[in-house]
Amino acid sequence: MKRIALLTVLLLVVSLTAFAVDVKPVVAITGTASVTWGYNLDDGSNGFLNTADSSFRVTLLAEDGTDTHAGTGAMYGSITVSNVELFWNADSAAGAWTGGLLDADLAAKIVITPFEIGVYAAPGMTQDFFGALEDADAPDLVVDSGEGAFGMAGSGFMTNYGTWITATFGPAAVTAKIVSSGDWTAGRTGYAAGGEVVLTFAPLTLSAGAYMDFVEPTLASFYAKVAADMAPIVVWGALEANATTPDMALAAGGGLTFTIMEGTTLAATAWYGDVYQGLDLQVVFTEPGDKGLVPGLDTAITFNLLDVGTIKAAEWEVVTATGFKVGLNSDMTNYARPYVNFTYGSANDGADDTTAVAVMNAEAGVQLQVIPLTLLTAKWVSGAALGADLASTPMVLGSVQFVATVTY
Fold first, then answer.
1. Between the CA of residue 184 and those of 188, 368, 402, what are the distances in Å?
2. Where do the DSSP E strands lie in 217-314?
3. How do 278-287 and 248-261 pair as beta strands?
4. What pLDDT score was predicted for residue 18?
5. pLDDT at 290
6. Cα separation of 121 and 82, whole Å?
C-alpha cells in the first residue's frame, strides 16, 4: 500500500509539471517552548507554567499556485485554476494530521471582445466599502458590538447561481449581473439583478451600481464611490443605501491613508449609518521596527471613537503597542527591547448601554535576546480591565512574569 501511495504521489507531481502549476515540495517545521514563573500581586499565588506548540507541514504544490487555459483571438473561453494546494499538516494543538486535500478555486468566462460573459462563479450582489470596525469576538471591551456587513438586495441569496456580462470601452467598464436564489432543479426560484459602472481616469476611479431583489420587490440598493490615488496619499469616499418601503437605510463614509515613508503610515476612516450604530471613527499610526522615522522603534497606535449620535453612550479608546530595540552588537542579533502595550478608554458595556464605564489594561516589560534561539522576557501584566477593577479598593494590581522561550 505504501508503494502504491508513493507511486500515486509521484505520478501526480509528474503530471502537474505539464501545466503551469508550480511544483515545489517543501517541508516546514516550527515549534516553540516556554517556561514562565509568575507571581500574582493581588493574592500572592505563584508558580511555574510550561507550554509548547509545534507544527509539521509537507507541501507538494506551491501555495496559491495558478494556471490559466485560454484561447486566442477575439472570441474564446478562459478557465483559471487558482489557490491550488496539496499538503499534509500536523499541529500539536490539534493533535492530529489534517489536509491531504487538493483545494482549488475555479473561474471561467467567455470572451467576445470587448465583452466578457461569466460562467463561474456567480457574481456577488453586494458592496461593503466600510466593513465592520466593531467585532464581538475581539478581546476588546470597546470594539465589541458585532456589526455586520451592509446587506444589499440579493446578497442574502447565499447561492452560487448566476452570470454576468462586462463590456470594457477604454476607461469604462460596465457590468450587468443576474443571480437566482436556487438552481433550476430545486423547483421555483427567485431572482436579483444589478448593474455596475467603473470609470478610471488616473488618479481617479469612480464606481457606482444598483441592485434589485425581485423576491422582495420593495428592496433595492445602490452605491457610489470615488477614490483618488495620489501617492503618497490615497483618499476615498462612498455611499451605500437600501431603499425599502417606506424607509431608506443609508451609510456614508470615507478614508485617507498617508504613507509618510515605506512602512510608516497614518490612516483614518470614518463612516455613519444606522447599521453601524451611528458614527464610527478610527485613526491608526504605524511605524515598523526595522525602518521608518525612528530606527528600532516599532509602534501601532489606534484611536477609536464609536457609536456617536445614537441613544448609546459614545465609546472611545486609545490602544498602543510600542517597543524599542537597543542593539547589543553591531548586527542587532542581540538586543534588549523594552515595550509597553496599553489600552484606555470608555465603553458602554454596563447594565445600561447609555452608561459608560472606564476600560484599561496594560502590559510593560523588557525582552532580551542574548542567547541564540532564546528570548527572555520580564513583564508586568495588569489585572485592571474593567471599570469595577479600576474603582476597587484596593485596586487590582495584576501579576509579574518571567518567561524563557526557545524557538525551533
1. 7, 64, 64
2. 220-230, 233-243, 248-261, 264-273, 278-287, 297-308
3. unpaired
4. 47
5. 82
6. 13
Q: Which helix (H) or strand (E) holds 322?
A: strand 315-324
What is the pTM for the complete model shown? Answer: 0.82
Please say whether the beta carbons of 308 and 278 come within 8 A: yes
Nearest to 363 by CA among 134, 143, 38, 133: 38
**pLDDT at 122 exceeding the cut of 50:** yes
- Dihedral, 67, 71, 72, 73 alpha carbons, nearest 10: -140
Rounded distance between C-alpha atoms, residue 299 and residue 253, angstroms: 27
Cβ neighbourhood burial of 406 (10 Å; 0-12, 13-18, 19+): middle
What secondary structure letter does DSSP report for 313? P
Cβ contact 191:183 at 8 Å:
no
Say which DSSP state 275 is in.
Answer: G
**Grid cell digits, residue 163:** 452570470
| pLDDT per residue as tens digits for the range 214-270 | 876 657 889 999 999 999 999 999 998 888 756 778 889 999 999 999 889 999 999
Contact yes or no for 227/204 (Cβ under 8 A): yes
For the chain, give the number of residues: 408
Which DSSP string do the residues of 339-364 spell out, in sequence order?
Answer: EEEEEEEEE--SSSTTS-EEEEEEEE
- Number of neighbouring beta carbons within 10 Å of residue 130: 24
Q: Report which listed range, 271-275, 286-290, 372-376, 394-398, is most confident.
A: 372-376
Question: How many other CB atoms are found less than 10 A from the CB of residue 156?
Answer: 16
* 180-213 core/surface letters (b: 16 or more CB in 10 A; e: else): bbeeeeeeebebbbbebebeeeeeebbbbbbbbb
The whole-angstrom separation of Cα 157 and Cα 178 is 12
pLDDT of residue 294: 92
